[in-house]
Amino acid sequence: MTELFGTDGIRGTVGKWPLVPEFFLEIGKSAGRILISDNNNANIVVGRDTRSSGPMLQSALVSGLMASGVVAIDAEVIPTSGVAWLIKKMGAAAGAVISASHNPVEQNGVKFFSADGQKLSPDTERKIERIALAANMVEAETRIPSWKIGRATNGGVLHELYIQALLSEHPNRFLEGLKIILDCANGAASWIAPQVFDRAGARVIALNASPTGENINVKCGSEHIRRYPGEMGALIQHYQADFGLAFDGDADRVAFVDNTGKLIDGDYILGLLAHYLGGHGWLLANSVVTTTMRNAGLKTFVESSGFKMFETRVGDKYVVEKLVELKSQNNQVGQFGLGGEQSGHVILLNDEFTTGDGIRTALYLMHAYLESGHKNMGDFTASVNKTPQIIASAHVGSGPRIDRNDLDSLEEQIIDITPGINRINLRYSGTEPIFRVMLESDHESTEEDLAQIAYELCQDAQKTSGVNDGKIDILNCTRGGLISL
Fold first, then answer.
1. Which domain holds residue 443?
2. Is 469 exposed, middle or buried (0-12, 13-18, 19+ CB in 10 A)?
3. Residue 108 in contact with residue 51, Cβ under 8 Å?
4. 281 and 375 assigned to the same domain
5. 174 by DSSP, 3-state: which?
6. Per-residue pLDDT reduced to its tens digit, 258-295
7. Annotated active-site positions, please?
C-alpha cells in the first residue's frame, strides 16, 4: 500500500503536510517524471474545484510539472469528470484534479488520471510517491535543460467542448417541459451544470451556484441532501418544480429528490439506469457493478430484471476496474458499462467517458424518466424497493485503528447474535479520518434498531482512537435523512 494515496488520491487538511505547496511542488515533479516518461513536452490537463486553497496548490503542482518538462493545460474550475474527458479528447499524457470532492472546505487533495482517463494504478501511485518522498530530492530530480522546461497554457475555453459532449448524447432540448432545482454545492458544477440543463430545455432554478472559495459543500450539495432531503423537498413544493438534484464539490456525485421529498440515491439510479439501458440493448454484459455497500433491494431489482450484479471493494476506482474488465470481454459498439456507489457516484463507461460524472448521470436518468411515461419522479422510482439499511460515520482523528482481523471477527459475531441482520461492513474511510458501519436487515430489524448497534460500534472505534465525544452521523439509507438516537 502507498503511504499517502487513498482510494481517491491524496487528501488532507490544508496547511498540514502533505497539503502544503512545498509538497505539491515535489509531487508535481515526480508525477511529471513518471507520467510523461521520455516525452518531455507531453500535455497534462489540470483542473480544480472552487476551494480557496485550490489556486495555491494548483500553482505549486503546475510548477513541479513544468520542472519535469510538462505542458500543463489549466482547465480552471471544472468537474473532475471534465478533466478525465479532456485527457482523451486532447490525447494528453495524463491529468490531475485539485479537489477533496465532498469533504469540508478546509480539506483539499489531488488525484491523477492516466492517458485513458482513468485513475492511476497502485503501482504508478507508489512510483510517484516514492520519488516525492525521497530523502534527497537533489538526487531524485530529473535533470532537464532550461530549453526543455515545460509551460502552462490556458484551457478554460475547453469547457464548451465538454458541455457539447454531454449534450450530444441526447436529443436537442429533450428536457423541455421540466422545471428542476439544481444544488451545485458552490463547487465545480456551479457554472457548467446550469448551462447544460438550460440548453437541454429545462427550466432551471440554480441554488448554491455562487462559490466564494469558502462555501463549497457548506450546508449544500449531494451529501447534505442525503442527510436532509426534506430541505430539497420543501423547495420543490415552493417552486412547484418536478424534482431536484444535487451535486458534490467536484460534481462526480449526484443525488435526486422526487416530487414527494424522497431521496433518490445511487442505488435507485443504478437500478433504473440498468432497466433503461438494458431495455435498449445498451447494457454492457447485461451487468451492473456495485460496491459492498449497496442495498439488498437493488440486488433484488437488478437480478429480477434478468441482469447480473458484480460487487467490488468500496471505491469508484475498483468499480471502474471491473467495468474495464467486462468491456475487454464484451466490447460491443454502443454499450455502456454501468456501475457505481450508493453515494451517487455512477459510472457510464464507454470509449469517451471513463469516470463518474454527476451531470451526465443526471441527464441519462432524466431521459429514462421521460421515456418511461410516468407522471412524476416518485412513480418512476417506486419499482426499486429498499430493505432497512443504515450507514454510520464516526470521526476517529489520527489515533490508533481497530485491527482488520478484529473487525472481521466483530462482523461475524454481530451477524450470529442479532436476528434479522443479513449484512454488515465495518471499515475505515480511504479519504477521511472516518470509521464507517453499514448494517442491513431483512425487515426483522428496523433502521432505528440498526442505528443503535452501529452507534455502539462507532463509540468503540472512537475509544480505540482516543477520540472523546466525537461526531457520529447515522444515515438512513432506505428513506434518506439522519437518524437521531
1. 389-476
2. exposed
3. yes
4. yes
5. coil
6. 999 999 999 999 999 999 999 999 999 999 999 999 99
7. 101
